[in-house]
Amino acid sequence: MSRYHVDRLILRPDDIDPARSPLAGHLDAETYILGAFNPGLTRLPNGNLLAMVRIAEALRDPIRDGKVHAIRWEADDLPAGKVAPRGGGRYRLDAWPLDLVDTADPRKFLLRGGGWRIMALTSLSWLLPVELSPDALEVVAMHYDRAIAPQGSFQCYGVEDARISRVSGKWLMTTCSVSPERHSTTLYTSDNGLDWSFADIVLDHQNKDMLIFEGLIDGHYWAQTRPLGDLYFAYPPGSEWRAGPSINLATSPDARHWKPYPAPGLRPHAATIATARMGGGTPPILTDAGWLTLWHGVEPKEIVGIYRTYWSLLDRRDPSRVLHTEHAPLLEADAELTRPIEHQLYVRDVVFTTGIADGDEQASAPGHYIVASGEADLACRITHIPKAHFRDVSASSP
């Protein structure tokens, strides 16, 4: 049972029409919607909200004839490093002999025998703009004609996990683009929050969960980043910090060219149990007390782990100064929410928060934030969280 008055699923896989997918008609194989989740969130000029939803479209039968198959996009005669027109290119299937792979995870498979981990996906993700009511509790329209799908070789395995910020009257959206070339962060821009144009690759290999602050600091753009790796150096014995993945900071004059900030950002803290991995959740928004940022921490369990949402407050002039972190989770996975779609679950214990909007802008009962999350890598969850929660806890911190 949720501790919040409003906490519900507003979009599920069965709400998506595969016949209107960018993949429709391309493959000689049946696909289905594995998940509609991890929605970026922003307020549109008409007062409605936009959720940019990650749609994972998977092969119904990825294993057949002794092989496992992956979906891949490719362009016809596209020069290296260029992007195709929207809707250009084609989707195809690649087949791998079963004796070369590990298929323990239903979403992907690992290739055996290499000197490092190499995977391929049995699904491909694209982004669907879903217009919501001002309180985010009703679907107003699904804009299939504005879907964002692969356009370049650097995203041939899909486009994932949008995060949307509005800065100086323009909408900026970061996404994760997946390919054998690189696991990169790509930027899209919009003048209205609904029609998006590809801008460029802005961060290179395996830098995930890039979140652009919703506002400039001394005329510069700021962002949270999260480089991946498999080697970390130890803190001294007895340190309050744990070695491992952390949320770093970067600055930019134009939101295109980013320089790492020298001081650390959010680091795994010994008092927070779920920091075996951590990464950014919602783009930081400015409050009277500082920049409010929601992030995820992971506790190891089985294949995926337990994902929870936490929050921190950062100094408004220097976001490397962490004013407060609440070590108790703000959101956890809720089995009651997914009980009606229990038959579609393929992972559990996962809430992945990806969007936040001020609920006061169009609310008859002000005083809350609208928080958007992916639940169980399956559905979109909307939670109304009172602003007083953040004020009360941060005011009591040293």
From TrEMBL:
InterPro entries: Glyco_hydro_beta-prop_sf, Mannoside_phosphorylase. This is Glycosidase. GO terms for molecular function: glycosyltransferase activity. The lineage of its organism: Bacteria, Pseudomonadati, Pseudomonadota, Alphaproteobacteria, Sphingomonadales. Keywords: Glycosyltransferase, Transferase. Belongs to the glycosyl hydrolase 130 family. SUPFAM superfamilies: Arabinanase/levansucrase/invertase. Gene3D superfamilies: Glycosyl hydrolase domain, family 43. It comes from Rhizorhabdus histidinilytica. Pfam families: Glyco_hydro_130 (PF04041). The keyword Glycosyltransferase applies.
